[in-house]
Amino acid sequence: MTGGPVPGKRTTIRDVAKSAGVSYQTVSRALNDKGEIDTTTKQRVLDTAKRLGYRPSRFARGLVRQDSTSVGLVIPNLLNPYFTEVAAGALEAARRRDWHVVVYDTADDPDQELSTLAVLGSQVDAVVGYFGQPDDVIDRHTGGMPVVQIGRETLGSRFGEIKVDGEDGVRAAIAHLAGSGRRHIGMLDHDHDHHHDASVRYTWYREAMREHGLPTYVTGAAQSIEGGQRAMAAMLDEHPELDAIFTYNDVIAIGAMFQARLLGRRVPADFAVVGFDGLAIGSMVEPPLSSVRIDTRAVGATAIDQVSQLLAGTKPDSATIRATLLLRGSA
């Protein structure tokens, strides 16, 4: 057994479990006077918890049943409906297991992400989500807790991972636009000033355009309807010859479509618009938005499935969600 509490570090239920030589579920049952635990083990756990100075967090006592698995879902922006749909998929999958999901919004801010990681250890049993921090930083803050990363490779770490592969979907979108006679197809990428580099979605667009021998046009856009409007206005001012636009996501696409119509472009008669994500909101605009569709519910559900495997001690295989072209009315 290990010694007493470490100054400046909050003792977690996992610390008690490690010191007592039992699972964290056993610690939870002992602390909450649940059944299925013998008297000797229960007393050992209680003595260990007292020696280490463990106390359940106010959060855990008030919001999460100690005999139930809780998962922290970390997302960069709840206002973006893509992440809302992913969260819905995770919540649905967790409910089937009688698990709890607590959502953390980092506002796409690195400092807020670090603050979120700093409090996760005492609040949940596993973490899934979108992270900008390096793997070693995430590992240090989560201390052996199961972690599933969405949208990026984990470079062989202990984490589960879910990758989104939109290459074939983007290729299909450009082929459709080129096949309908479009020759000047631009792209509104994410905000390059904020993210510094062009996105992998731009790489997919560029390669697809090369396959058809077409020139590329790109500018960055803030990930909002207003951002799409501003970027579309600037791009059409610089390149009035454009007859189609592909965008980093559906929110940008909706703004771009609004702006194109304000500038007198008929959609899709003389100007086509294709987004990326395939969100439900795309069916609520006129004309309905064509998009490279990601099964957002499957992303959330797969994350919960991987958590289940990690909690059982198994490293899950990397999962890939592949995009497909969803044609509606805008292209």
From TrEMBL:
Highest rank taxon of the organism: Bacteria
Domain HTH lacI-type: 11-65
Gene3D superfamilies: 3.40.50.2300, lambda repressor-like DNA-binding domains
Pfam families per UniProt: LacI, Peripla_BP_3
Residue spans crossing the bilayer: none
UniProt keyword list: DNA-binding, Transcription, Transcription regulation
GO MF assignments: DNA-binding transcription factor activity; transcription cis-regulatory region binding
Alphabetized InterPro entries for the sequence: HTH_LacI, LacI/GalR-like_sensor, Lambda_DNA-bd_dom_sf, Peripla_BP_I
Stated name of the protein: LacI family transcriptional regulator
Organism: Kibdelosporangium phytohabitans
